[in-house]
Amino acid sequence: MSAVGAESIQDFIVISPDLCHVAYIAQLQRSQMVVLDGNPQLEFDEIIKGSLVFSPDSKRLAYVGSKNGQQMAVIDGKAKKGYEGILSDSLVFTPDSRRLAYSAQNEGQQMVIIDGRSRRKYQGILAASLQFSPDGKHHAYAACKNGSWLVVEDGKEHQAYQGISVGTLSFSPDSSRLAYAAKKDYRWIVVCDGREGEPYSAVGGGSLIFSSDSRHLAYAVLIGNQPATVEGKYTTSKNSKQLVVADGIEGKQYDAVGGDSLIYSADGSILAYAAMQAQKVLVVSNGEEGPRFDGIGKATLVFSPEGRHMAYIVREKQRWCAVVDGIQGKFYDTFLEGGVVFSPDGQHWAYAVQNEGKAFVVRDGEEGNYYDAVVGDSLAFSPDSQHLVYTAQNGDQQFVVFDADEGQDYNLLYTTQERGIVFLSNDRIQYLTLMPSGEFRLVQEEVLVY
To answer: Is the pTM of this model over 0.85?
Structure first.
């Protein structure tokens, strides 16, 4: 096995949700293999990059390997049946980690494989549409049959349409409802619980959202002529308007609506989203419009866990500030990735910024220590909401900051939100670091709390 440098490993690595397991693709002389926690797995002609996925409970690993012209899923170290191809990013575990599904292709047809069993063959399976319900008891995907597209739910085919919009197929949190956007008579509708909504010129892909109690459904739509697109997104046009539909009721029309900004509060009583009117951006909360700004940070609109507080990041004259409960904070040069983070009890908030060449964290309005860099999406509050941790950097060394106390220096930390700093208790944390030797090490620290 050839040596793999740390920079190469980062391009092929996956870390389990509990931070306790690391898997990566290793290059041999004429083949590749996955190495899990230092243990070599099966050899293949190629391991498909980006296919490695851990189960939600971190106990299982699945990926796609290619050998002798066929691709096959490898689950728990065992290779399954080979196919002409396995669709990209289609491997998905149930939330309880017990079951695995993926989409495959043979002889020009595509099918879904669940628990090793091949389901009905179709002309095509819509990319990234295969998913399990939150309780793991149901599955659904979109497929092409006789030139039309339909949703297959637990093996039962829904009505056929001219198309199914990518990224719209969604189960409700309680697993009892299923919604998606479909094309009918050259217009787009939302189908929920088998019932069709009103037709529109377009439905915002990724905008369909259920409230946490599963009682409410909202999505963004376009009316009028479809405007031109820039980088895949609609531009504003005098011949079209955009609005949000909530529980079948149309909201106010705007020049544009941020389809990926729709969010419900924890109890489902508040629906908020970002909109544009007359070249100014504002946040709409249950129909009430907030102040107008030059811009709003992408995916920064957030509610506190209990739903009582709302925050987002805005831009005014090339400077950025946080708005928390309608109150504007100080303006800075740049807001770092991650936006505003609330504590579990919703009483505290924090975010990372860069200003005049230095990076720092602002906590409850107070600026912290200055550093060369801060990993913006590493911020995390303790379970009791009293302590804040994040990753900072000075020079070429990174370290964890617990409140204002700086920890040990490391070459590189893996501490973004997806695989972040984990609180084991209010004064014990766990995170993953990369040593200069290329070895990954799980670090646990206990902090003296006064």
So the answer is: yes
